[in-house]
Amino acid sequence: MDLISGEALSALRSVLEEMIPDVTNPAHEPVLIFNTTHIAPIGLGGFIAVNEDPKGVIYGRRIQTNATITVKASNENQLNNIVDNLTENFLTQDRLTLVQNGLYRVVLNDIGPVTTIGGGNNAVSARDVNFSVLYEYVKLPDASEGVLDEIPLDSDLDLSEGGAKFLINTGFDEYSLDLFAVVDDPLTTQGGPSNWQYNADEFRIEQLADIRGGDLVPTPNKAGTYLLLKQTAQRPLMQNFILSAEMESGDLDGIGFVFRFQNTENFYYFLMSSRHNYRLMGKKVDGVFSFLDIPGLDDTQGYDIDAHYQVKLIVQDSTFTLFIDNDFALQGEDSSITEAGRVGFACHSNNQAYFYRIKLVHFQR
Q1: Structure confidence at residue 149 (pLDDT)
Q2: What is the per-residue pLDDT for 286?
Q3: For position 154, what pLDDT does the model report?
Q4: Distance between CA 256 and CA 189 in Å, rounded?
Q5: In this structure, which CATH number among 3.40.50.720, 2.40.240.50, 3.30.70.250, 2.60.120.560 belongs to the domain 163-364?
């Protein structure tokens, strides 16, 4: 385990221990155990941004874990009261407080049976309480340090010339929809218009309409709705870039990205489906949907309902590469649309599509 991941686990332990009710009897001290399922870098290989004061690099890690807390008491009645207080502390905190502490999801999985630990006068009643936790750790520099003028991109691709610039790296608030423009594909025939909203309780952008045209099965005919970042002087049209987002779906159908968007007749897209177990890159050129020249298609897996994913798309010239939770997922190639365009989110027949944050790196030649 790398140093920052170790620090992230220690920080998570501290956050959770602060939420556990205090006990007066040392023999009743709760025990916290992690069963970590996934640790992944946040941002670009763990790089989030450059901190100004003190000058240095900000790194981050995302942790998915099951946290088991063994609580103890002199008798079962006291034990049940402690369990009630514990679950209340974990499940009733407001969303803003949780996020400020790095906790993006806390779900009660199970409360185990009452057991007895020890014997005789030392016997205590005990019970395990298990939570599923999604946590993000952000490490700020302690002191000024050297900062690279160019972001190292070796883990993602080889750029022999030019540099890279972060254009956006943000979670969402009530004004975030102002960053985007909504475009519904003119070939959609069902469920429209789209319904893009901001959910203040969950700090996310949602798309809640079942809008679509074309097929649900893994063919390229996927007319949907697109939430496109607006072009500004600081955020130009892009040909080569890294687009990363955190997304989740409570529905079975298409959720993903749109990129190199010229107009409603010409663009690329990525969609994944739980209903039909596919991950698909496609294009619309002169108003006609089709596969890429070298198709990007995996028709053996999609996504899990209500699971939180980090999805990263790397576009370099004619090669498009996709990573899900930092694992290689898909690659396709195409040279139909070479011009720079807009990027954003895409939905196809998905009325519970959730987007939590967006990061965009522009490759400049």
Answers
A1: 40
A2: 98
A3: 36
A4: 20
A5: 2.60.120.560
